[in-house]
Amino acid sequence: MMQLPTSPLPGSGARYLLWYNGALTLIMTLAAWLMGLQGFQLPAAILWSAVAGQLLLTGLCTLFSAQLQSTTGMAFLVILLVSMFNLALYLFASGGHTNPVISLLLLPLALSAVSLRPWQTLLLALVVVLLYTLLTHYYQPLSQPDPGPVHHAGGHTADNHQGFMQLHLLGMWLTFAISALLICLLVIPLAGSVRQQQHLIARQREKMLQDEQLVALATFAASSAHKMGTPLSTLSVLVDDFRELVQGRPEWAQDRELMAQQIQLCKTILQEMMQRAEHLRHNVPQPIAVKALLQQVREQFNLLHPRFALKVMNPDIAGSVMADGTLEQALLNLLDNAVRAGDHCPVLRAMVEGAQLRLEIEDIGPGIPQRIQQQLGQPVVSSRKDGMGLGLFLSHATVERLGGTLSLHTREQSTEQDSQKPGTIIRVHLPLLGS
User: Fold this and answer.
1) How high is the pLDDT of residue 56?
2) Neighbours of 330 (CB within 10 A)
3) Per-residue pLDDT tens for 388-431?
4) SS3 for 218?
5) Where are the domains of the chain?
6) pLDDT, tens only, 213-236
7) Whose CA is closest to 317, among 435, 402, 215?
8) Who's near 312: CB < 8 A, 6+ residues apart?
């Protein structure tokens, strides 16, 4: 049985983490360079140590990107924490909470919210709040060189303060805009990857449950066939004993012969059921020529419904498809439903559509109700009061297991005689081998 992922982090999360660290390194470098151009006096050793640490982290993420694709969420948590401490050290040397770049502390929290577990995100939130609080009390303030002698009391000081505030506000706006852009470029695609992974997990879980139901039905069918073998053998012996009793009575002899044929047919059907159940449990599909498949379906249908002769349109299609013992039975189930719906012989059309084999079964019955079309693929789906509701489910499951699709459509009314019976078209698509 396939194991499902135990972490909500998708494999593509390593790529977004690498982009985040690279963008953070670039922003820290550019901000330090611009503040140096503006004449701010900064502790270069601490500042560039933080930039070097972030650059080293980005290089390690690039070097081990393949390993990060399959690692657990704990490694991502450690990387985010290291990047946050690098940024905090950088902010300590460049103004603390007065540095507009401090808004970038929220980016790791946004990445964690869509890629890590809730307790990991809460841990990062506590660290972010703690770092921000410490940076409001402990930091190296931004300062510029002395502008020189003041000719007018308070004039240059006010101008310098106003210029610093304008620069600070501009930096806050740029940092906010960059943060919004990075969230859009990193978080939105990452959230989409998470949703896609959850969708795939749901589909895999549904397929696993469907396979388990099929195996259970196959086991039940094999057990039932084995149990029915004993009474059929008893009936066969009794019918043989009747051979002497019906001598001289032709009408009785004919009935006895018909009973013997029907008992032998039941034995053959039960034997085929056991073989198909065994194939289903082992799940070993084999290639089969399309022409041979259509011929087998036509012969079996004519045996089940002697009143009709199935008409197959375009039966000489070249190519092969993957099939097991259940594909023929699935097509027979669909044809049998068509007969019961309209009490007319259905039409089976075969055609090649791209790299797929397309089979259409058309009847002139009352059509498929909308609720049945919406429940396709679920067990106990039937529009007949005497139906068990397994025919469509088994056919749909068989076709999907072989890589195909099954869909139901209402046939358009073509004549006035068909106005009360719109009919149904069942389309089956199967991939052709070698296409």
Assistant:
1) 93
2) 25
3) 346 677 788 788 888 888 888 876 654 444 444 567 888 999 99
4) helix
5) 13-142, 208-281, 285-431
6) 666 666 666 677 767 777 888 888
7) 435
8) 294, 297, 298, 348, 349, 350
| DSSP string across 22-87 | HHHHHHHHHHHHHHHHTT----HHHHHHHHHHHHHHHHHHHHTHHHHHSS-HHHHHHHHHHHHHHH
CATH of domain 285-431: 3.30.565.10
Task: Kindly list the distances between the CA atom of residue 96 and the CA atoms of 100, 125, 145, 156, 358, in Å, as whole numbers in the listed order.
Answer: 9, 18, 19, 25, 68
Give the pLDDT score at 391. 66
CA dihedral 373, 378, 383, 385 (to 10 degrees): -170
pLDDT at 5: 40
- Of 56, 110, 54, 112, the closest CA to residue 87 belongs to 54
Residue for token digits 């470098």? 29
CA-closest candidate to residue 115, choices 86, 90, 79:
79
Torsion of CA 203, 209, 211, 216, to 10 degrees: -170
pLDDT at 260: 86
Range from 158-167, 173-182, 373-382 carrying the lowest mean pLDDT: 373-382
Nearest residue to 24 via CA among 157, 179, 158:
179
